[in-house]
Amino acid sequence: MAPVPSTDTVTAWRPEVPGIAEVLHARFTRHAYPAHVHSTWTVLIVDDGAVRYDLDRHPHGTAGAAVTLLPPGVAHDGRAATGDGFRKRVLYLDAGVLGPDVLGRDGTGTAVDRPGLDDPLLRDRLGALHRALADPRDALHAQSRFAFVAERLAGHLSGGPSGPPDPAAGDPTLAARLRRLLDARVRPGLTLDEAARVLHSHPTHLVRAFSREFGIPPHRYLDGRRVDLARRLLLDGAAPADAAQAAGFYDQAHLTRRFARTLGVTPARYAAGGRSVEAGSAGGSGGKVIGGAAPSAPRTRRRARR
Prior knowledge:
The protein is an alpha+beta fold. The chain has helices spanning about 120-135, 140-160, 170-185, 190-200, 205-215, 220-235, 240-245, 250-265, 265-285; strands spanning about 10-15, 20-30, 35, 40-50, 50-55, 60, 65-70, 75-80, 85-95, 115. Helix 1 packs antiparallel against helix 2 and helix 6 packs across helix 8. About 30% of the residues are buried. Mean pLDDT is about 85; it is low at about 280-305.
């Protein structure tokens, strides 16, 4: 096999998200794919340049298509449309992700005849999903993003609306049940599919119901609970690495990112500030405020005259 030219780059990995078999980011200038097939769905977005390809012996191109969807088991090739090459991001989805009820008897729905999807919202959702997948420490976030992508793809394949009816969008009871489930699983966490099975609801319905009721999606709620737990552990004297593990973060770097984004200070500085306050209180001289800001004098609120 000839080596990949030095001007071409490929990055591929298998994420911890059920239904996604592989993620691939690539830049090609000279490589051309021969005709081949996949056992998976191929969801392609082109960030730079354009691709020409034959699908089932019919010519197509990515120019003018926000998203390209290639079905499993159907032969296709691929090559740059110009001499400048192209840069792409690809998801390979398990064949069973898009249910048989939307695919018809041939198992491909409308994808063979119309692989190009002019859907800017779907492209935006795919971009957000790729960004989430780049961080393996945030599986629930990526799972939530993927649920909405799969829903919209299924809508295109069925030729119907881009998503099923959403009876749970305004369901506070379902949102509260998911919240209790997250509260009980702060440290170990849970997958979106697991929550859907336990609560007997569709994954996207869960995310919509929770976001509408509480103003944030489930993955951010879980992040907040873990940050709160880490704060208590740090002030109790735990080292940042130990607090990260005990609070359910992937590692100390994961804790640091989420902690700083939420509180504006690293876990180490937060813990050091807490120790300074304790030392200052013991000496009667007051302590250092976390983050370096000086304490402000209390203000007296005046009652408005009537």
